[in-house]
Amino acid sequence: MMTNRRTEQDTQSIAKQLRATLGEADVDRVARECGFIVRKRDVTPLALLVACVSTLIASKAKWLADILRTFNRFTGKAIEYKPFHNQLAKAAFPEFLRLVLEEALEKLTMSVLTRVPHHKLAMFKDILMHDGSSMAVKDSLAGHWPGRFKKISPAAVELHVTMSGLKDNPVSITLTADKDSERAEAPSPEELEGCLLLEDRGYQDRQVLKSIDQHGGYYIIRGTKNIRPTIRRAYDSNGHRLRKLEGKRLSWDVLRSNVRDLDIDWGPSKNLYRGRLVVFYRRGKRNRKTFTYLHTNITREKFSADEVGDLYRLRWQIELLFKEWKSHANLHRFDTSKPQIAEGLIWASLLAALLSRAITHAAEQILGTELSTQRAAASARHFLDSILESILRGGRTLRRVLAEAVAYLGGNARRAHPERDRNKGHVATWLQPIVALKN
């Protein structure tokens, strides 16, 4: 399976991309540019990076000594704890790993999904999902990273992520204190021309919605239940007009147990938002009546109310990404009171997860078989360590170990129910794996 010419060419291409991202010369360049190193010592930037990634992808690491032991295993050295800790405690340590992650996002991500041919989904250049995920850090870091919930998590950070639906990978990641405003980290309207943005209710903002529309972008953003816009026009899910709702203020009392597709006027005249609001009825806790509001500027001539709801379900992919990070890449609180170490290990965790996804996506293209990134992440230590070791040794065996990784993923990370995914999963919404077109 790994001997045909095309496979060798594809493996060579991936090896080239990995060398361009994690090769010693490139990693050293990044380390020098950010001031992490001035001259090389026993703890080299590449060896440190490899030790961090290997440790974080392998098991539930809790101590910095776990990374040191991995470093000594890879390098054959016997570095003691203090000089090793001193490297991690450098002010430039987190910036070094953040920049390597940034280059990896740019060089290693690829398109893995595409639109169903001739479908109206082609009107979007990409489908972007944006959200934040919080995690606690050591309580002593509360002065540096204050949390929103002081009694439960005095110190916490939030990762703000924009994910591409077509690449099935993040395209932007920022880190802030959990207490900071999340809206400031959302994609700017200028970046969204031709793209569809999916966001949760924390990002509802009239001015932002208007600005995205003015810059040629599209959005489906969940609304909060406390808004009271005026209903200008109302339709049911079949497009039949409901004149009895028009002119009323939106409230649960005027809505029935059905889908409602509304044109609304929301806000004061100086900051009036006129848009489309799709309302879905559902039963909440204790069987109580509740609704889901979805703001969008996609016209109902293009997408019906039910289709807007189907599109919004794609946002679940970013929740699965967060779950993958926290379950399989050791994205958790480390026992350190130094913010530079805590932040650096967060970036290292994300780099480990990105490498797992990138190699899985590449293997999928080579094999022509749909693979599960969750299954691959759960077993990443079985194929990543040999790749990392080859890179650390200069990459002479990289093509061979990549071929072995591809074979391993083909046998252990196939999607269990690809046909079911076409009906219920992320490819149900008019998307399909690129490998499906090749077969």
How would you characterize this protein structure?
The chain has 439 residues and is α+β, with helices and mostly antiparallel strands. Among the domains are: 5-109 and 334-435, no CATH class; 228-289, no CATH class. Helices cover 41% and strands 18% of the residues. The strands form two sheets. Strands 4-3-2-5-6-10-9-8-7 form a nine-stranded mixed sheet. A two-stranded antiparallel ribbon has the order 1-11. Helix 1 crosses helix 13. The chain is globular and about 80 Å long. The model has no long low-confidence stretch (mean pLDDT 91).
Summarize it:
The chain has helices at residues 5-22, 24-33, 45-58, 64-75, 81-88, 93-108, 206-214, 305-312, 316-328, 339-367, 373-378, 381-392, 398-412, 418-424, 434-438; strands at 113-115, 127-136, 156-164, 169-177, 196-199, 218-223, 230-236, 260-266, 273-283, 289-296, 431-433. The protein has 439 residues and is of the alpha+beta class.
